[in-house]
């Protein structure tokens, strides 16, 4: 149960990193990645996965 | 360290070819009394004091001072139909598009390096490429915090869509950011829903009317909170024909009543190649006259700014001249530690003060002469001017990458906008397609002022009814425009020339970023 970032479409804007409540998103070798061990799909915290809601490129999707 | 050079040498007076080393000559722009430059006469002195050296806000200052935007804020919290952030190309020059994102540390280094090279530098702005207050404004405020310590004489400003503004007003006041630009395209959610497909607010993605309503309320609240704290607010609006063109009058009223001191109406930049929703769906931008009609109608509301060229978010240099290539991250890293010394900038500012005082007197004299001979009733005309700055007619027709448009009449000569063109003489020989483009861009003008022009384009202009004028070469623009108008009014009276009232012109998409080839 985790989200992932489709790196080919990611613009590396960092909006998702700032919104993730679990610090699951970080910049690795020039692209943002989600650590599946930390990602909770925001359950219990927000109505919807925050990264997907903020991403302008719509590239945060269920893994 | 480079020290103070006279304005004339900065702007390459007397040179027809683009100078190789002069810091600020590639495209330039000049003139002085552009609409909002009237200064103390029709502006609160406290406001004038804040904006007089600010190239983005004072139409007079943008001829003499430079601003720099650093691209430290890539994240955004709303989607606009005129923006596609996936598209990032260095040939591009839409606002919001940058080819190089900087960390706050890199940005500080870049700013200090540029400040040492360009004494005209007076303003540092953060405008994107996303929204400067998205992602909690972390990078934006980190940059300002360092800057305030290291270079306290530089003015700070930021641009935002306003969505996250209310929660950051206190921080903005704390960093002594005295200029904020808010992009406000509507005050009616019905209109807004056609411009913004979604926003991200309070941990949720909102769409449709809800999104537009929240955005509108946040924008108005943020604007009120800023002006209540004495922070200057400029409003930018993008004019989208058929969507918000007439509505912009209401926007103008709403923002003026809440204390905005300038309202800048920009044409929509719409091209399918940009991949924006509007671009792909055939939404067009306004023509020059459509834009001017709306700007004129808003005049007397919040003061209008017309010199905006929609510079890119990482533009460096005098407005309209993009020297960003000289200061890429690699080159800045290679510079090592940069010392900061504000002496050169201070001397430069004093020099400009003296020059401005002399100009104001000679303009007033020229205007008085027109009113005496022509009277106060005559219809104003538009004149296109080829210039590279210093308020003089100092550019060759064929080298111009843009023309400055002046409206001149018994009320004086006033700058009303720019028209971008392709350089007619690129590569040495003029080509006919480019000339047609130039003609279309200045078709509503009566004359074009140049430092020099070849016989061929000269004839084409005359055939199109636009008089090429080189007799004012290297003179000041406004005085020349008034002298020309006096003569024109006489010839019109004798029936020798015909009025060009009712003509329209085409606005080229993309901002002017005169890169040296
Ligand atoms: S779904 Fe939520 S927890 Fe997972 S990465 Fe996105 S924001 Fe973080
Ligand atoms: S918000 Fe989307 S585009 Fe931006 S960094 Fe995250 S995944 Fe990439």
From TrEMBL, chain A:
It holds the Pfam family Fer4_7. It comes from the Bacteria. Residues 1-30 form the 4Fe-4S ferredoxin-type domain. Keywords: 4Fe-4S, Electron transport, Iron, Iron-sulfur, Metal-binding, Transport. Its cofactor is [4Fe-4S] cluster. The keyword 4Fe-4S applies. The keyword Metal-binding applies. GO terms for molecular function: 4 iron, 4 sulfur cluster binding; metal ion binding. This is Ferredoxin.
């Amino acid at each position: 149960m985790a989200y992932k970032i489709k790196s080919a479409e990611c613009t590396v804007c960092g909006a998702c990193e700032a919104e993730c409540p679990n610090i699951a998103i970080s910049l690795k070798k020039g692209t943002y990645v989600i650590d599946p061990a930390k990602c909770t799909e925001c359950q219990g915290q927000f109505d919807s996965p925050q990264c997907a809601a903020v991403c302008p490129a719509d590239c945060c999707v269920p893994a | 360290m480079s020290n103070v050079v006279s304005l004339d040498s900065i702007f390459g007076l007397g040179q027809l070819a683009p100078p190789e080393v002069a810091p600020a000559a590639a495209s330039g722009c000049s003139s002085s009394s552009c609409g909002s430059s009237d200064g103390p006469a029709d502006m609160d002195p406290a406001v004038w004091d804040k904006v007089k050296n600010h190239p983005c806000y004072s139409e007079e200052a943008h001829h003499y001072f430079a601003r720099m935007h650093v691209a430290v804020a890539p994240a955004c919290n709303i989607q606009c139909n005129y923006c596609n952030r996936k598209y990032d190309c260095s040939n591009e020059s839409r606002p919001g598009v940058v080819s190089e994102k900087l960390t706050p540390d890199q940005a500080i280094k870049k700013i200090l390096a540029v400040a040492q090279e360009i004494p005209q530098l007076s303003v540092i702005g953060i405008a994107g490429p996303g929204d400067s207050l998205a992602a909690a404004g972390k990078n934006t405020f980190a940059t300002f915090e360092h800057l305030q310590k290291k270079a306290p004489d530089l003015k700070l400003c930021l641009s935002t869509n306003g969505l996250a503004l209310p929660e950051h007003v206190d921080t903005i006041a704390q960093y002594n950011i005295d200029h904020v630009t808010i992009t406000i395209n509507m005050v009616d959610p019905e209109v807004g829903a056609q411009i913004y497909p979604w926003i991200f607010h309070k941990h949720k993605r909102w769409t449709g009317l809800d999104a537009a309503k929240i955005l509108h309320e946040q924008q108005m609240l943020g604007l009120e909170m800023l002006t209540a704290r004495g922070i200057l607010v400029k409003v930018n609006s993008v004019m989208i024909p058929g969507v918000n063109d007439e509505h912009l009058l209401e926007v103008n009223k709403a923002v003026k009543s809440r204390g905005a001191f300038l309202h800048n109406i920009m044409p929509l930049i719409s091209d399918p190649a940009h991949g924006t929703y509007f671009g792909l769906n055939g939404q067009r931008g306004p023509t020059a006259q459509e834009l001017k009609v709306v700007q004129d109608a808003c005049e007397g509301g919040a003061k209008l700014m017309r010199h905006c060229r929609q510079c890119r978010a990482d533009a460096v240099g005098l407005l309209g001249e993009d020297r960003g290539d000289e200061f890429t991250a690699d080159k800045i890293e290679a510079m090592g530690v940069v010392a900061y010394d504000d002496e050169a900038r201070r001397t430069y500012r004093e020099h400009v003060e003296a020059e401005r005082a002399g100009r104001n007197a000679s303009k007033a004299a020229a205007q008085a002469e027109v009113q005496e001979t022509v009277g106060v009733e005559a219809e104003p005309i538009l004149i296109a001017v080829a210039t590279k700055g210093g308020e003089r007619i100092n550019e060759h027709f064929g080298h111009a990458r843009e023309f400055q448009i002046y409206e001149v009449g018994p009320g004086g000569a006033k700058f009303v906008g720019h028209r971008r063109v392709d350089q007619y003489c690129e590569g040495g020989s003029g080509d006919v397609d480019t000339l047609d483009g130039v003609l279309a861009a200045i078709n509503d003008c009566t004359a074009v002022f140049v430092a020099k022009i070849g016989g061929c384009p000269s004839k084409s202009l005359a055939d199109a009814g636009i008089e090429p004028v080189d007799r004012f070469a290297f003179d000041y623009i406004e005085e020349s425009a008034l002298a020309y108008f006096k003569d024109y009014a006489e010839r019109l009276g004798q029936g020798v020339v015909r009025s060009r009232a009712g003509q329209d012109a085409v606005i080229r998409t993309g901002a002017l970023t005169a890169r040296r080839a």
